[in-house]
């Protein structure tokens, strides 16, 4: 029997060997997603007065979450195929385009599509942060890294509505989205110098992306999200049950696949990793 010894790792270790700069970039991606997710709480009430479309307001939140779930689910496969730096660039570009589109939006459909792109980009950035935590840093630092990322997430979620309120109070709700678009560009531009050398793509990986399973996951998430905003109890219940059934079917199909999106045994409470 091997004895597992715990090693105390001081926080100062994060500042060594370039760890801090890479960690801050990963946390910056978490900031972009988490702050943007709550930003709309104070921005959208004013935005709908300007562009209209209040009957479709729930889709602003629903498609953001849908995009983040679907893109976040395949972030690991993207890293294997193209490397974490290029994956960060792709996710960042989606995020920037989404923010710019929402900032420009003359109507609600444009706003909704922009939020979908933001969710896709932001979800990818968050997933890449956790992937990077386990691939770019020594194992002894993992606990510290996750603690920092979690702290950033909490602070970012709190700041989102405050930032939105600041721009709304200044009479420029569109500026909130443009400000995050500018920040997204920073995440794109800083990815090559900080991430390229730490995790390269696996060139021999040629498995196709699981688009059919991603579509199934998307429909399941969409049904569950809509169940929370539909006012009719019967329809809401049907959507919720349908979404859960589709989600369980997705996990079953994914477990049988060679290029799994999620780890095998993800629904088993006894599974550790």
TrEMBL record:
Main location: membrane
Molecular functions (GO terms): transmembrane transporter activity
Gene3D superfamilies xref list: MFS general substrate transporter like domains
One of the Pfam families matching this protein, by short name: MFS_1
Location of the protein in the cell: Endomembrane system
InterPro entries xref list: MFS, MFS_dom, MFS_trans_sf
Membrane topology (UniProt): Multi-pass membrane protein
SUPFAM superfamilies, alphabetized: MFS general substrate transporter (SSF103473)
Major facilitator superfamily (MFS) profile domain mapped to chain residues: 22-273
Keyword terms: Membrane, Transmembrane, Transmembrane helix, Transport
PANTHER family documented for this protein: MAJOR FACILITATOR SUPERFAMILY (PTHR23501), VACUOLAR BASIC AMINO ACID TRANSPORTER 4 (PTHR23501:SF191)
Name of the featured protein: Major facilitator superfamily (MFS) profile domain-containing protein
Organism: marine metagenome
Lineage: unclassified sequences, metagenomes, ecological metagenomes
């Amino acid at each position: 029997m091997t004895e597992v010894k715990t090693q105390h790792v001081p926080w100062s270790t994060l500042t060594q060997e370039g760890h801090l700069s890479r960690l801050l970039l990963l946390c910056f991606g978490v900031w972009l997603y988490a702050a943007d997710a709550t930003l709309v709480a104070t921005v959208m009430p004013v935005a709908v007065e300007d562009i209209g479309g209040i009957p479709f307001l729930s889709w602003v939140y629903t498609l953001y979450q849908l995009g983040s779930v679907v893109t976040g689910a395949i972030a690991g496969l993207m890293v294997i195929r193209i490397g974490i730096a290029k994956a960060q660039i792709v996710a960042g570009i989606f995020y920037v385009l989404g923010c710019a589109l929402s900032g420009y939006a003359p109507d609600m459909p444009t706003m909704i599509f922009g939020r979908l792109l933001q969710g896709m980009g932001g979800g990818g950035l968050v997933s890449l942060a956790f992937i990077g935590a386990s691939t770019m840093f020594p194992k002894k630092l993992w606990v510290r890294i996750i603690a920092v990322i979690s702290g950033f997430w909490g602070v970012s979620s709190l700041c989102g509505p405050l930032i939105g309120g600041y721009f709304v109070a200044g009479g420029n709700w569109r500026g909130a989205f443009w400000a995050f678009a500018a920040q997204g560009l920073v995440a794109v531009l800083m990815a090559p110098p900080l991430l390229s050398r730490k995790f390269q793509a696996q060139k021999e990986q040629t498995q196709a992306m699981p688009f059919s399973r991603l579509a199934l996951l998307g429909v399941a998430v969409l049904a569950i999200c809509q169940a929370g905003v539909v006012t009719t109890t019967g329809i809401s219940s049907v959507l919720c049950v349908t979404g859960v059934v589709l989600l369980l079917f997705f996990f079953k199909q994914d477990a049988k696949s060679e290029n799994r999106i999620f780890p095998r045994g993800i629904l088993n409470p006894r599974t550790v990793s």
